[in-house]
């Protein structure tokens, strides 16, 4: 069965690694933005208000467009032509695959890292002390099974934050694959080791 790979963030590193591995054949809504946590909410709501409910925080210098409910920071508006039309087309493409695809959907999420904890608070978004990416993916798994019972899919989560999900071990079942990084991301530390580990893992999916 042909596979379609979908990045779920947390940032553009997921889509970039799929591209570098030669697995990125389509563009999807999470490719070039930051979704700090709660990815499942977008799927639960069929991406309603994903673009319409953006807000601008004028106190933030630089990238200052956010979605408060979906915990998203919108990047690369300057690089993507016809930004809203392009993102909407990517949303429609993803929903179309979920509803009608005879392909296997391979979802990939590189979890938040330490710098995202600071960034979330700086942006005024929901900022739990511990971000549970595992619970987020379990909720998303249940949503996909309920909404799209005929969909063949696998959620792949790469955990890299050194202060969250500390007891989590590698895990895999029919729909969920969790890989715990051996190079946990530490703020202001050289990012190359864990980025290389993540990139090598993506090649195996």
Radius of gyration, in Å, reads: 16 Å
Overall 3D shape: globular
Mean pLDDT: 89
Largest sheet: 5 strands, mixed
For the secondary structure, the number of strands is: 9
Topology:
Layout: E1 3-7, H1 12-20, E2 33-35, H2 40-44, E3 55-56, E4 65-67, E5 72-74, H3 83-100, E6 104-110, H4 114-123, H5 133-147, E7 153-161, E8 171-172, E9 176-185, H6 192-204
Parallel strand pairs: 1-6, 6-7, 7-9
Antiparallel strand pairs: 2-5, 3-4, 4-5, 8-9
Descriptive account of the structure:
Strand 4 and strand 5 (72-74) form a beta hairpin. The strands form two sheets. The protein has a five-stranded mixed sheet with strand order 1-6-7-9-8, with helices on both faces. A four-stranded antiparallel sheet has the order 2-5-4-3, with no helix packed on it. It is an alpha/beta fold. The protein has one domain. The protein has helices at 12-20, 40-44, 83-100, 114-123, 133-147, 192-204; strands spanning 3-7, 33-35, 55-56, 65-67, 72-74, 104-110, 153-161, 171-172, 176-185. 34% of the residues lie in helices and 21% in strands. The chain is built from six helices and nine strands. The radius of gyration is 16 Å and the shape is globular. The model has no long low-confidence stretch (mean pLDDT 89).
């Amino acid at each position: 069965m042909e596979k379609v790979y979908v990045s779920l963030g947390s940032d553009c590193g997921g889509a970039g690694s799929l591209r570098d591995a030669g697995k990125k054949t389509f563009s999807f809504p999470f490719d070039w933005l930051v979704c700090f946590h709660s990815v499942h909410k977008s799927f639960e709501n069929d991406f309603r208000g994903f673009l319409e409910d953006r807000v601008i925080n004028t106190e933030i210098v630089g990238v200052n467009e956010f979605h408060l409910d979906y915990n998203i920071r919108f990047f690369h508006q300057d690089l993507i032509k016809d930004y809203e039309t392009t993102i909407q087309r990517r949303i429609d493409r993803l929903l179309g695959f979920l509803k009608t695809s005879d392909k296997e959907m391979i979802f990939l999420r590189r979890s938040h890292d330490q710098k995202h904890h600071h960034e979330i608070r700086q942006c005024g978004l929901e900022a739990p002390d511990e971000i549970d990416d595992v619970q987020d993916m379990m909720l998303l798994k249940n949503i996909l099974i309920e909404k799209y019972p005929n969909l063949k899919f696998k959620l792949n989560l790469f955990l890299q934050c050194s202060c969250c999900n500390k007891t989590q071990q590698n895990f895999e079942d029919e729909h969920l694959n969790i890989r715990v990084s051996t190079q946990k991301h530490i703020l202001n530390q050289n990012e190359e080791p864990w980025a290389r580990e993540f990139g090598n893992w993506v090649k195996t999916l």
